[in-house]
Each structure stands twice: as structure tokens, then as C-alpha cells.
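Re: export button greyed out
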Amino acid sequence: MKRGARTAGGGLSPHVRLWLVTAGDATPFGQGRWLLLAAIDRTGSLRAAAAELGVSYRKAWGDLRKTEKALGVQLIETRRGGRDGGDTRLTANGRRWLVAYGRFRARVERSVMRAFAATFKDLQP
Amino acid sequence: MKRGARTAGGGLSPHVRLWLVTAGDATPFGQGRWLLLAAIDRTGSLRAAAAELGVSYRKAWGDLRKTEKALGVQLIETRRGGRDGGDTRLTANGRRWLVAYGRFRARVERSVMRAFAATFKDLQP
DNA sequence: TCTCGATATGCACCGTCATACATAACGAAG
DNA sequence: CTTCGTTATGTATGACGGTGCATATCGAGA
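Workaround output, generated via the alternate export path:
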């Protein structure tokens, strides 16, 4: 379905990055963490999730670590060992954040498309 | 007036980055270029504008260059020499982009605040 | 014609951040 | 108790982007 975005002016398309930060903390919760949680939910594995997103396991793991610390919330639950080596699943809170951010993003994205169309209708690049 | 943002859940606040890209070009028009144009409009000087934004003149100049090339539009008009060394002003197109992006951003920001409040009302970090 | 401050532009350095690499720990199944 | 794949974590290498610095150009006014 092409991540495209309608072009109003010329070959011009709008992009948006949306994230949340806690009080003084520098670690954000944004699209990256969101995609990561989604991939974990799908695959049941942090390693698989990282691979799916084309990001290193090292980074994915560190990101989650920092985010959980920043939010003060446990997002994932991991198990090690066993035939399959282990797995990673979302906690109830993890799924809550996944859903909330998804909704948040969807709403804003719709608004971005509307605002873009309205604002750049006549601006020819 | 503090870039703050209402906190709905805890010390949580939403942030957004908005930008536009042309067809295949990697050079975006976003908040940075927008602030730069605004500062130029206020000060009448690229050097002063860069200083005001706390960014190096080198970068400010390069950014404008790339953006004008990417958009295929002349945004500024510069003069060199004279008692004051010269100055930089916005072209009619420059001002048009300044205004358009400002409106675009304002609309989206309002929507972000609304969506954030609605989505993260009950999510305690 | 000399001066002064801003525009114009190349280049070397440096901080940041992700990747790559190297291990270690774990534990069910065989 | 050995194997195997995953989680867990430190360290180093490398790409990228901004800063700093150097230098050139310009032109009205003194």
C-alpha cells in the first residue's frame, strides 16, 4: 500500500516523527521502540524482532533497557535457555504502550495529511 | 513560553518533528530551515540568524544552499559589501514557505496535543 | 584607496551513535 | 552432561554531521 503520502504541491511529501519523553529523561519512546514492541509481539523473540527491523540486536536490547528505565515500567518479559534458547514477550504494560502509541500515531498522521493538503495546496516547489 | 506541552499521564510530554521532502531528494525542509528563515526575516542577516539559533554560520549557509537546490526555489536574496558588510533577505517565495510551514506546523501541533491527551489519559509511566 | 563587516566556501577535527565483534550465562531437550 | 539458540553486556570500529578555522570576495563609506 505504499507508504507514499499524497503529493499536494509537487513531488512534495510530508513526514512526521512522533515521540514522548518523561520529565528530565533524554530517552524517548517513539516510532523505533514502537516498531520494536510490535515486532516482539509478532515474533516472540527480541533477536527476531531486531532482525526484522534491520537493526542490531545490541541496539534493540539497549533501547528497551533504557526505555524501561526511563518509563519506570516493565515492557517485556524474557526467558533464557531451553530448546529454542529462550524468548521475549510483551507484558500487559508493554502491550498497553504498544497500542496507545499506535493510536496516537494514527491520529496524528491523519491530521498531518489533512494539514499538508490544506497548507501546501498552491505552493509549487 | 516554554516548549512544554501538557502532561497527561505522568511527567510525559509529546514531541513532534515535521518535515517535507521532494521526490527523490534527501534534503528536507523542516523546523530547522523554518526557524532559519524566520530568524533571517527578523534580523536581515544570515550571520545574525545563525547566531540567534545557536548554529554555526557554516551550517546555516550550507543548509539554505541545499534546500534551495532541492526545492528549485530561491528563498533568500543576499548582498555583499558596504558599510554593514551586506545582508540577507527573504524572497517572496522564501516568505511564502516560511508562512506555509508555520501554518502546517501549528495545525499539526494542535492535533498532537489533542491526540496525546485523548490517548495517554490513563497510561501511567 | 583603505577599511570593515557580512557573504561565500573548502577542509580538518570531533562528538555521537550504530554496527560489529567478543563473550558469558542460561536451561530444556537429547 | 553436551548441545543449541537466545538473552545479556562490554568494547571497539566506523559512518555522519556539526564546529572551528582559514581564506577569499564584495562594495559603500571614510
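The interface with chain B takes residues 10-24, 28, 71-73, 96-97, 100-101, 103-104, 107-108, 111-112, 114-116, 118-120, 123, 125 of chain A (CB under 8 Å). The button fix ships in the next patch.
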